[in-house]
Each structure stands twice: as structure tokens, then as C-alpha cells.
Amino acid sequence: MTSTSTTTPGTAPGTAVAAACAGFGRDVEDNLAQIGRLVADARARGVGLLALPEACLGGYLSVLGAGRDGSHDEQPEDLPPVMDLDGPELRRVAEIAREMTVVVGLCESDGTDRYNTAAVVTGDGVLGAHRKVHQPLGESLFYSAGSDFACVDTPMGRLGTLICYDKAFPEAARALAVDGAEVIACISAWPASRTASAASLAEDRWTQRFNLFDAARALENQVVWLAANQQGTFGKLRFVAHAKVVGPGGDVLASTGTEAGLAVAELDVPAALETARRAMFHLRDRRPETYAAVTAAPMAGAVRA
């Protein structure tokens, strides 16, 4: 399903979009070199917007899991290196990106707290950043949570970003769609199940959830959806891979499956959105006045695990 269109690099961004699937660890120089190779490959294939995985600049947590009482029963051997949005690492990414828009994951600090962050970078620097809001399985012991969802304007259109578990919450993607997102890039370090793992990674239940969320979020918001993910293993985690590009109709346009690489799709984003929204436009047909209980009231009738 992966598109392989090729163009000659120039000063204008390409028209294709892509999501990367690759493994990244603690070695920042090695990560930057790998980012350089992925961007060069994407550039040669006419890509103007590339989403790289969560934590691609310094690696993710080596373990992730919590007991039923919420306690974290395992500690990571080390934590990702802290970086600043105006620091040398993202300046290097900007030099690599040039005319391309690249979404990268890092551990950011505001001087007090750590955040799991997605930065939107071009040759002009950092255009914007999203701090992961929803934190699974004890991640809150190591990162503070972000507090908002907002889009940025890029050479490839209006872009919203999410990180991994954020996509399990329809409100997160919808907030970006209401803010005018044409493309949403969700970058992940999404692991396979550790409690009921499947012999085939493609059949793992967490792989299935990863893929379902991608299709649902694209379709319900009628946006182009980029899902980048880590591949391989890190510590005790095995990642499900399956980077993909999903069209605004929920159809998968390109996927890496379980392999490392790029999922590339050539498409005219505004035209694709216009076609998808021509008859049934979900954002137009919303009835926000009927949804107040979704965000205004505490959860009722359910038990927290």
C-alpha cells in the first residue's frame, strides 16, 4: 500500500505526506543520524510533511505498566534526556528538515517539569509543540501532563499533533479538528500487550486497537491522519509498528505493517477534505449544546480500574 513517488529535491515542499516507523534509543547522535536518513528518504519521495515516532530524539521509557491500584511496579533503568525547544537538538532537526515539515518526539523541560512532547519543525525552526495530555500506565510518575490541544499553520496546511494514548480519547482529536486541523499527526511508542501477547505482532490485541483508533479518528473528524510509531524493542517493550497514512474517509492509504520504514501517500489534502465533507460534514453537523455532560460532569455509572 505504500506510495513510492519520486521527485527532485528543491526549495518547495513536496506534496506527499508520510509517517515513519523506526526504533530509537538513548543515543541522541544516533537518533539524529537516523532522522537524517528518514528525512532524506522522504524528500526523495516527494514528501512535504513527515511524522516521526514519539520519543525519537531520546528514546521512551524502558518499562511501562501499573498494578490495579495504580502503583508502578517497575522502574525504568534510566530516563530520556531532557531537551529544550530552542536547544541544539531541535536546531539540528531544523537543519535536516529544510523545506520539509517534520514532527519529532522528545522529552522537554520547562525548567521544573518534564513533558512528553511533539514538536513541529521546519528549516525556520520550531513552529509549535504539543505536550502529551493523556498518560497511561504510570507514565505520570515521570512526566507532567499537557493541558491543551491547538493547531499550527505549516507549509503543508493546518496541522494538529497528538501523542500515543491521546488518540484513545475522541475529544482530543475533535478539539484539533474544531481548531481547523486539516492533518493530524499522532506520534507513538505504542507497545504490544504484555499480559496477553499474540504469537504474531499483526494479530496482537494492542496492534488492533492502534489501527482501529487511527481509522476512527480520521473518519469521525474527516481529516488526513498520520500515525507514526516506534518499531522493534526497547527494554521490556515490543512496539507494534504499523505506521500509516489514513484518508479522511477512514481508508488506509499507506502502511508499514510490522516493518520499519515510511508509509507515504501522495494526495492533495484540501481536495481530499473537500471530497470527504461534500455531503456529510461531521463538524458542521455537530450539536455541541447536547454534549455538555461529556466534559462538564464526572464519570458516572462506571468503575475505575
UniProtKB/TrEMBL annotation:
Molecular function per GO: hydrolase activity, acting on carbon-nitrogen (but not peptide) bonds, in linear amides
Domain (CN hydrolase): residue spans on this chain: 13-269
PROSITE patterns registered for this protein in UniProt: CN_HYDROLASE
UniProt keyword list: Hydrolase
UniProt xrefs under Pfam families: CN_hydrolase
Coiled coil: none
Keyword Hydrolase tagged: yes
Protein name from the UniProt record: Putative amidohydrolase
Taxonomic path: Bacteria, Bacillati, Actinomycetota, Actinomycetes, Propionibacteriales
